[in-house]
Structure formats: C-alpha cells, structure tokens
C-alpha cells in the first residue's frame, strides 16, 4: 500500500466487501434483487469505489455519502441480526450483514474524521436511502420482511416510524463521532 493514501485504501476495502457480498448473493440466491441487503451492498460498493477513485476531489460530498451509506449498512446489519435473527453462515450473508457494515463504520470512525464536513442536518437527510427502498418495497410489493414490515398490518406505520427514528439516531451518533474531532482540528488549525 506504499503510496496509496489510507482513505483511498479504506474506501477500497469497503467497496470490495460490498461487491464480494453482492456477488455471492447474486450467484447463490434465487432472486436477490428485491432485498435491501443486496441493494445496500450495490449502493455501498458504487459509492465507496467512486469515493476511492475520486480521492480528495470528493471531499465536498464525502461526508454526506459516507454517512448515508454507513447508516444504511448499519440498518441492514442490526435489522438482520436482531429483528430477523439471521445467521452469518453463508459468504454473502457474512459480507452483506456484518463485514461491509463494520468496514464502513471503521472507515467513518478511524479514517478522515477531521477532514470530513458534516452539517447538523445531514443525519436527518440520511433517511433518504432507506425511504427510497421503502417506496420501492411498497410499489413493487416486494413481499419480503412481512414478519415485521407488513403494509397490511395496523402496526406498519409505527414500525416504519421506529425504523426512521433509529436511522436518525444512528446518524446523530455518527455525527457526534465526527463533530468533536472536526471542531478540535479546526481550532488547532486556526
């Protein structure tokens, strides 16, 4: 990795994890595309590969994209492991539900925190990718997740609201991780 900036290497690790998980899912599952896991992996792979290739040129959008993607991947991870009580026995499941979310979280926490710009309202906007999936879920009548996310259930609106609150809360946790480092770096530079 000599000569490769740590941020680029980190973003490539996230992209590779996402594409490995997605590749194994596509190769082994009958119809992987309706699932949020595969769509989140594709999104993460594209975002992190683009950020790695763009390097410093992506600084203006990096904070929003990395935050939105990390929150989405954490939603996939935590929902799969807790609500769905899924297992990590397959390669696709291991990468999509654990390794990629952890790699994105590590990239957020350990790499480039002082350089990233995160506005106070970003965590509110990071609900956009899960909301887009929810719209797709409803319009396409995906049929997955009926055990806890059934549009016909009287609890559907409450469940969706709780998920959105959890996404915003996770977003503000990520914001809180970056904010003190960013404030300190700006103070030291000034």
UniProtKB/TrEMBL annotation:
Keywords: Membrane, Transmembrane, Transmembrane helix. The chain crosses the membrane at residues 12-30, 36-56, 63-82, 102-122, 131-148, 160-178. The keyword Protein transport does not apply. Coiled coil: none annotated. The keyword Transmembrane helix applies. This is Integral membrane regulator.
């Amino acid at each position: 990795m000599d000569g490769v900036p740590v941020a680029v290497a980190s973003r490539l690790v996230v992209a590779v994890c996402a594409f490995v998980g997605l590749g194994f899912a596509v190769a082994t599952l009958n119809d992987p595309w309706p699932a949020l896991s595969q769509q989140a992996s594709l999104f993460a792979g594209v975002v992190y590969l683009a950020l790695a290739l763009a390097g410093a040129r992506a600084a203006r959008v990096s904070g929003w994209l990395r935050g939105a993607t990390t929150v989405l991947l954490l939603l996939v991870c935590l929902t799969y492991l807790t609500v769905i009580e899924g297992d990590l026995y397959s390669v696709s499941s291991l990468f999509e539900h654990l390794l990629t979310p952890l790699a994105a979280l590590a990239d957020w926490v350990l790499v480039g925190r002082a350089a990233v710009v995160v506005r106070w309202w970003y965590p509110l906007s990071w609900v956009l990718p899960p909301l887009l999936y929810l719209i797709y879920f409803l319009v396409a009548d995906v049929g997955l997740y009926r055990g806890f996310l059934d549009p016909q259930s009287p609890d559907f609106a409450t469940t969706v609201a709780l998920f959105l609150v959890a996404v915003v809360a996770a977003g503000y946790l990520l914001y809180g991780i970056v904010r003190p480092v960013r404030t300190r770096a700006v103070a030291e530079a000034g």
